[in-house]
Amino acid sequence: MATIDGRPAQYGISLKQLRELMEHRGREGVAKISEFGGVHELCKKLYTSPNEGLSGSKADEEHRRETFGSNVIPPKPPKTFLTLVWEALQDVTLIILEVAALVSLGLSFYKPADEDAPVLEEEDEHHGWIEGLAILISVIVVVIVTAFNDYSKERQFRGLQSRIEGEHKFSVIRGGEVCQISVGDILVGDIAQIKYGDLLPADGCLIQSNDLKVDESSLTGESDQVKKGIDCDPMVLSGTHVMEGSGKMIVTAVGVNSQAGIIFTLLGAAVDEQEAEIKKMKKEAKKANKQKNKSQTGEAPTKSTSHAPQSHATNDGIKSESDGNHVQQQTSSSAAETGHKKEKSVLQAKLTKLAIQIGYAGSTIAVLTVIILIIQFCVKTFVIDDKPWKNTYANNLVKHLIIGVTVLVVAVPEGLPLAVTLSLAYSVKKMMKDNNLVRHLDACETMGNATAICSDKTGTLTTNRMTVVQSYICEKLCKVLPTLNDIPQQVGNLITMGISVNSAYTSNIMPGHNPGDLPIQVGNKTECALLGFVQGLGVKYQSIRDEIPEDRFTRVYTFNSVRKSMGTVIPRPNGGYRLYTKGASEIIMKKCSFIYGHEGTLEKFTRDMQERLIREVIEPMACDGLRTISVAYRDFVPGKAAVNEVHIDGEPNWDDEENIMSNLTCLCVVGIEDPVRPEVPDAIRKCQRAGITVRMVTGDNINTARSIASKCGILKPNDDFLILEGKEFNRRIRDTNGDIQQHLIDKVWPKLRVLARSSPTDKYTLVKGMIDSTVTDNREVVAVTGDGTNDGPALKKADVGFAMGIAGTDVAKEASDIILTDDNFSSIVKAVMWGRNVYDSIAKFLQFQLTVNVVAVIVAFIGACAVQDSPLKAVQMLWVNLIMDTLASLALATEVPTPDLLLRKPYGRTKPLISRTMMKNILGQALYQLVIIFGLLFVGDKILDIESGRDQDLNAGPTQHFTIIFNTFVMMTLFNEINARKIHGQRNVVEGLFTNPIFYTIWIFTMISQVVIIQYGKMAFSTKALSLEQWLWCIFFGIGTLVWGQLITSVPTRKLPKILSWGRGHPEEYTDAMNLGEERFDSIDSDKKPRAGQILWIRGLTRLQTQIRVVNAFRQGLDSRYGEHTNTSLAEVLRKQTSLSKRLSETSSIEYADNIPDELTIPEIDVERLSSHSHTETAV
Questions:
Q1: What are 782's strand-pairing partners?
Q2: How many domains does the chain contain in total?
Q3: Pick the catalytic residue: 323, 456, 885, 1085?
Q4: Does this model's pTM top 0.90?
Q5: Closest Cα partner for 837 from 422, 320, 332, 491?
Q6: Is it the case that residue 1170 has pLDDT exceeding 60?
Q7: Which among 1176, 1165, 1174, 1167 is positioned nearest to 1090, based on CA atoms?
Q8: Which domain holds residue 443?
Q9: In whole angstroms, what separates CA 440 from the centre of its chain?
Q10: How many CB atoms neighbour CB 1173 within 10 A?
């Protein structure tokens, strides 16, 4: 018989049996496991040991992978470059140009027979096709550049995604050692340790558990927490969150075989089929619409796609977002909230509105240009010269059309979304180095506007390396660590035993990597401090734990934010039980009736003694910034009970926590120090200087909190501020009925600096109250840090949620926008800097882009009216458009942030996008450029003594006159790009120019290309080579923009009317403008459907589709696994599917289906509609 690693190669249980096993829940699950002989027998069948885990040998791991699969769900392949090219081609303006160019090409070869054209014209006709071809080529260049940008963005995001996935580790036991392994490496047969806050990466059966409660809403849609235990419900499933307790499980299914994986595979198949079906439906709908225009109920015809191995439908509609190698979800409540929370980032809202407005203006002018050109041509040719119609005139009309379309191309700033995405993508990449792992792109920009930060204390402001520095045992207060001999023996034993047993066995102290290093604390840091105290007394806590393994515990009351304590019940050697408890000292003290006094004598713990202890021991410790923890115990004995023991006849009712946790005997009080991180006071000073208020929200004692807040600099000696405890905070913000009132919160939050002994709900209330408040002129933009499972709601509600990368639970990371990989507050300051930099980069690009837009459009329009020809030709405008949009957005979006970004106040939500200073620069520069260009157009030929380009025949060759106009325009644009680097009216525009290699590389490249185009462009670019003198004139006018820029800077901004700033007001007002583009066909016949024209417009105007898709995929922290239909759509589908399957199983009144199929029916997913919701959230 084949063996692997000394064991038989055939497992005692097959993959199919394991899959079936995992489909049972509750009592059925217990029964099913006992059919296999219990969970220990199951371990034997999978050749693993509950205490030792897998052997960890390579051969064994490989074999398990081959037999049971690996814990990875294969992602959908990324879009190919060609698909992206095809998508870029969908742009309306480009399509019009392509068509016009093709028509122009065709006409240039069209020679009507009836014409007796003179030979001279033949020469010109040879070149007629060049312009058409040149336009086609430039369109191709634009498309390829766009596609390449999208391609590289998608690659970057995938890289980022895998980085986020790589961060997810899980604790398993291998070879008797607890080790952290990547989620993708988990195998069937692994023994995994699960604890509060974990996101389970695979399915398994419990071997042992304490007070375990799991949130299975991601699978079942039920928001109630499910109690898990070996005898009530031993099945734990992938993708669910552990909300309380801890335990150990054997992994029974991974990857595509886990419950989450099964549903993913179904969904993947379903979505593909769905796409095809939706296309079909759309066509049918159009036909139906033509036939009858009367309104319908708007129900899409539902075709059930049914496929599934068994009827999983009943309870596993998974609502999830996949994370490549493990399945991640949000809880069901969060789904509603995500939709509600991040409707649109402030910047995106303003930009979308701006792009639409510019587009409308540009298109109006473009249409006018075409009309004027054609009317002039017709009047001149047919009325004045009275010539008959010739077929070749069609060519002239097409040329006029091409000029009009080109004006439109230049007018529409499709570089805007590109600049935003580039700037964000660049920042995100750089922020990695500053320990910020950005999960949602727009969080980065929102952070620049933050006006308030609500921070945790532990781990963020402090080092989270805790040590016991004071202790109070047997009426002796020690400021140094006592030795075991200083403590009466029986008390010493109780303390060491109580701490070793009553702390999570996942908390450990490991020796440092090198001999001189500090020991490494693993697990809960407070427990590590206590274990360190035990070690300091000279006792090995591990040997105590080995005597009492976890499976001997009778009951565990795990720590949570309500209890603020933890208790463990173990059997006593001679019958009965002993409860050990530890927790916040003021809470434990209230439950104690006895205390060990001098020399270890047992004393009654009276109210007076309690107050004295709090006054003389606990408060002084707290004022030193120490966290105080009390350890206590209680015995339940079957025989005669001593004073501090309880007599019992059977097993006590462990669920009656109130009674069990009373009449305790206090063993000791310890003060734990968690020093402030050395860099934090400086970081907080920077925040305050930058106009950001830092508030501390902590669960600690109010004195500890005050002490730490003063050390950090959150509290300044002479300031007028509030420090509240959670209870007092609630009393102040609730009315007589106990409801929270916004006007009451508004009285509290502006002065509040420290909120102590607060619950997660208090944190959420504070954040919500600040965001909804309208007390300040600029609305508050709030950032929040959190690490616990219960911080989820506050992190989601905040404008930017920061989760701790080291101490944070998976649930907190899921709810956050940015993960601080070093848990350090000073990294938040870096995030603020980058965020402000993004905002400024976009503003720089806008200032540059709008100047060019204004000038190009006016020149084309007035040129058309005055000279019957645009001075700037179509191909030339496309080249300017390329410099303007793509290259400039690259150059300006990659500026590096400077510390002086932190010297100004935040913009807030209502700050105008284009400030008066920027508008002054835009209008000033546009004026200069227009004067120069029109000067050259009308008198340039005389000044420079060259042949005039005005009144030339349409088919005439290029002239030096118009070449100089084009060249001067590009020179002015290029030098203005340097001006655009500063937007706050600074004089020195070249400062820091050489810190940005991308900028000067692109600038030099553009300059060289321009020389080549002018000297060798000939017919293709309608240029004629210039002499050196003419070049110097062009460059002279170009450099003039820098000098002119200094003049503009001298004009005082404050004198300008406020109307010159653009984009004021809260972006909520803009959402209507945005929804136009995204509200595609909500139902086949929706009365809100925008006109097709509008849709075309907005789509053509901003090439948002690709950008949105990429940003969306990123925002939801997914790989773009399901292309455009990811994020909410998946979640929604699954939720719908679950509710449907529930309905199918519970009632007979079915809304969707007339007959109930046996297999799983995944209801019709209107992917267009769902993805449109997701777009609405993120139009760039």
A1: 452
A2: 4
A3: 456
A4: no
A5: 422
A6: no
A7: 1176
A8: 436-462+677-823
A9: 1
A10: 16
